[in-house]
Amino acid sequence: MTPRLGAEEEFHVLDVESGRLVPRAAELIGRLGRPGFTTEMQRSVVESNSAVHDTLEELYADLASARLRLDSAAAGAGLAVVAAGTVPLARVRPLDVTADARYRHMADDYRRVADEQLICSAQVHVDVPDRDTAVRAMCLVSPWLPPLLALTASSPFWLGADTGYASWRTMLWQRWPTAGPAGCHRDAADYDRTLAELIGSGVISDAGMVYHDVRPSAHQRTLELRICDACPRAETVVLVAGLFRALVRQACERLAQADGPLCDGRHDWLRAASWRAARSGLEGQLVDPATRRAAPARTVLTGMLARLRPALEASGDWDTVHALLEEALAHGSPAHRLRRAVRAGGLLAGVDTLIAETRGERPGGHPAETRGERPGGHPAERPARATAWQGPVPAHVPGHDSAAPARSA
Question: Is pLDDT above 70 for 401?
Answer without folding.
Answer: no
